[in-house]
């Protein structure tokens, strides 16, 4: 089962037996090969749950609600106007941009390492309309932003980076945030009983524990403005918890 969706109890148990840090298993070439072998569709981005339209609806609505709550916490962001420039990081074929970021940002740049996915973005109506801006075909570990962003949205993809790469990525994002800019992560959480990160060799990714995320954010000089567990997914699907974190530079 894809790392973007459910892991069974058996998979969770076996991941905690491995004494090596989970991220030491990450192999970028294997991840790219995995994703390149998948169809360039919105469903692919959600693994086996992609066939359920409610899943993406709940996710995108949850993101909109979360961002609204975060904006209320920052007086200069509390208006209704759109952010000038956003970035969809680990964008896939643009599911998040199409269903959410394009409604809250005037222009959205996209960062995604799989060429067949960025081709979909390049051919899209949103690109022709100028709502999708620059498209970078590169992994987040190799992205060096050269602009100032009001919102950098990173969803269901940092599991492909090692811990050190996540910290470096956040540090680079921190210096490319506009004044009052936000960096958001929305990722699955590990449910390992010993609070360990879980490695998935299917797509060569790691699902991190909440404590690990907090440690990486702090190491990169960020503070959590707000965090929230995504609600609304049916219990019967045994999904891993999904958590959003809105980050600002530590003052
Ligand atoms: C589960 S999909 C999520 C896509 C999109 N964020 C969404 O929610 O629809 C994971 C994405 O991470 C991308 N990915 C793989 N390795 C990556 C890396 N090193 N940096 C950034 N993204 C990566 C994959 O190509 C894929 O598009």
Automatic annotation (TrEMBL):
This is Alpha N-terminal protein methyltransferase 1. It is an enzyme of class 2 (transferase). GO terms for molecular function: N-terminal protein N-methyltransferase activity. It comes from the Eukaryota. The keyword Flavoprotein does not apply. One of its GO terms (biological process) is methylation. Residues 1-23 are annotated as: Disordered. PANTHER family: AD-003 - RELATED (PTHR12753), ALPHA N-TERMINAL PROTEIN METHYLTRANSFERASE 1 (PTHR12753:SF0). GO terms for cellular component: cytoplasm. It catalyses: N-terminal L-alanyl-L-prolyl-L-lysyl-[protein] + 3 S-adenosyl-L-methionine = N-terminal N,N,N-trimethyl-L-alanyl-L-prolyl-L-lysyl-[protein] + 3 S-adenosyl-L-homocysteine + 3 H(+); N-terminal L-seryl-L-prolyl-L-lysyl-[protein] + 3 S-adenosyl-L-methionine = N-terminal N,N,N-trimethyl-L-seryl-L-prolyl-L-lysyl-[protein] + 3 S-adenosyl-L-homocysteine + 3 H(+); N-terminal L-prolyl-L-prolyl-L-lysyl-[protein] + 2 S-adenosyl-L-methionine = N-terminal N,N-dimethyl-L-prolyl-L-prolyl-L-lysyl-[protein] + 2 S-adenosyl-L-homocysteine + 2 H(+). Belongs to the methyltransferase superfamily. NTM1 family. Residues 13-23 have a biased composition (Low complexity). S-adenosyl-L-methionine binds at residues 90, 95, 155. The keyword S-adenosyl-L-methionine applies. Its EC number is 2.1.1.244. Keywords: Methyltransferase, S-adenosyl-L-methionine, Transferase.
């Amino acid at each position: 089962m894809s790392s973007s969706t459910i892991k069974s109890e058996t998979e969770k148990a076996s991941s905690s037996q491995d004494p090596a840090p989970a991220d030491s298993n990450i192999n970028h070439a294997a991840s790219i090969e995995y994703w390149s072998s998948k169809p360039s569709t919105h469903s692919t981005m959600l693994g086996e749950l992609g066939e359920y339209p409610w899943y993406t609806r709940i996710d995108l609505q949850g993101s909109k609600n979360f961002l609204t709550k975060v904006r209320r916490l920052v007086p200069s962001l509390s208006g209704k106007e759109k952010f000038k420039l956003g970035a969809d990081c680990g964008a896939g074929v643009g599911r998040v941009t199409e269903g959410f970021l394009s409604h809250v940002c005037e222009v959205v740049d996209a960062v995604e390492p799989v060429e067949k996915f960025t081709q979909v973005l390049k051919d899209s109506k949103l690109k022709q309309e100028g709502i999708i801006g620059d498209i970078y075909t590169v992994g987040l570990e190799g992205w060096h932003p050269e602009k100032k962003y009001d919102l950098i949205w990173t969803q269901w993809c940092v599991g492909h980076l090692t811990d050190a790469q996540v910290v470096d990525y956040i540090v680079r994002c921190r210096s490319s945030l506009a004044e009052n800019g936000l960096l958001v992560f929305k990722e699955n959480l590990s449910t390992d009983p010993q609070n360990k990160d879980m490695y998935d060799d299917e797509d060569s990714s790691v699902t991190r524990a909440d404590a690990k995320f907090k440690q990486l954010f702090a190491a990169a000089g960020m503070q959590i403005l707000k965090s929230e567990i995504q609600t609304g997914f049916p219990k019967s699907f045994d999904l891993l918890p999904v958590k959003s974190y809105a980050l600002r530079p530590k003052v």
